[in-house]
Amino acid sequence: MVSHLSHIVLIALEVLLIFNLLIVVHELGHFLAARWRGLVIDEFGIWFGKPIWRKKIGDVWFSLGSIPAGGFVKLPQLAPMEAIEGETEDRTEPLPCITPLDKIIVAFAGPVFSFLLAVVMATVVWGVGKPVDEFNETTTIGVVKQGGPADKAELKAGDRILEVDGKPVKRFTGPLQSVTWRIVRSEGETIPFKIERDGQILTIESGWDREENPKWKRKSLRKVQIGPRFIPSIGKVDPGSPAAKAGLLDGDIVSEVNGKPVVDISDFFEALGTNISNPVKLKVQRGNTPVEVSLQPAPPKDGAKQPHLGVAWGRMTLIHPTPEEQIVDAVMTIRNMLDALLSPKSDVKAQHFSGPVGILKAYYNMFESEQGWRLAIAFSVFFNVNLALFNMLPFPVLDGGHITLAIIESIRRKPMTGAVLEWIQTACAITVMTFLAYVTFFDVSDFFSAKKSPPPAKATPAESK
């Protein structure tokens, strides 16, 4: 129990460390640019809430808050925020004027620093590698749900998908050139699949369906009920488990069960069955050597349907994309998401985006993996690019809004009046906070839905899409 709690605390600390790093670096860009341009800086704070440490160095207050959630820089000349934050500094003299160019440079520095951090992290990923699931690097169908839309359209296990909805695909899941994304992003009554089957190229029109979720959960997206071919390769064997006692090793690929050939994880479980009274004869490929072992399954655990083996299926492989490839992929992912959001025929809505809770949960899931830091750094490349681009939106409470107001000021040759600026900032702040609260509601509902659902077995095949 203590060990499990320590594990949770360690992962939580890792999540807070990397999340705060990304936010503080963004704010550091504003701080350094403000120093360079000679702006008044009231405070540079790490974390929010009641300060647990606060000290004035020179003319700037530096603080450490009690809520570990990023950081901030108070720049009263950039845009007065009294209506939102309240007056925090007593001034005996009016603030000196600054030019629109000063405002643009200081506002732009935050996104620039986020982008530069993305480049640094992408360079690290290029060197140490990005983990990818072996089964995801395929477009071959491994399972077709009986009675589902794909089954009715006569798509079959073993079909290699070349195009979905007229778009080429290179992988099964993910937001770029993937089978699942093109299914979700389709807008027609049917979805055309261009496939290769037995050396022939065929085009098959499939229907689609979606689950009916309660209103407090995210709306289900389109599915045709297929899953990728999942070669029964062993990613990890738990010590002391039935698999370990049988002599199975990390990296083994199961090729036969009781003399029956298997090419997909679904074949493996079909051949394994639910009988745990007798040992199972397995033939595995270990490197270039075939090996035979005898495996005695144990009763199912944690609500699973299959016998307990103590195996995590699916090997992770490392790829080394260049920094340029990673940045381009991040930009294209954001473009695809916005394109889906703004299309009136798309099923993708604002509720399908994630806020801080969803992002923190994603990081937590990554750090649970043995490849946690590699996964987290690779994801942070996307997060930093997203943070930079999101902050460039022309809302006055965001960096892009400050830039927009500075451009308007340079055209008018005078700043907006305080009352007008205060009204615009308040309205935009309410809009942004409402959006974040909206997506956070669904992030939290996802969390509690997962807590209520029985945990899946380690060896469950990938969910059909």
Structure in words:
There is one protein chain. The protein is α+β, with helices and mostly antiparallel strands and 465 residues long. It folds into 3 domains: 114-129 and 320-465, no CATH class; 132-229 and 314-319, Pdz3 Domain, CATH 2.30.42.10; 234-304, PDZ domain (Pdz3 Domain). Helices cover 42% and strands 19% of the residues. It is built from 12 helices and 18 strands. The strands form 6 sheets. The protein has a 4-stranded mixed beta sheet. A 4-stranded antiparallel beta sheet has the order 8-7-9-10. Strand 9 and strand 10 form a beta hairpin. The model is unreliable at 82-87 and 452-464 (pLDDT under 50).
Task: Please supply descriptive tags for the structure shown above.
465 residues; Pdz3 Domain; 3 domains
Low-pLDDT residue spans: 82-87, 452-464
- Give average pLDDT, whole number: 86
Shape designation: elongated
Straight-line distance between termini: 36 Å
Percent range for β-strand residues: 15-25%
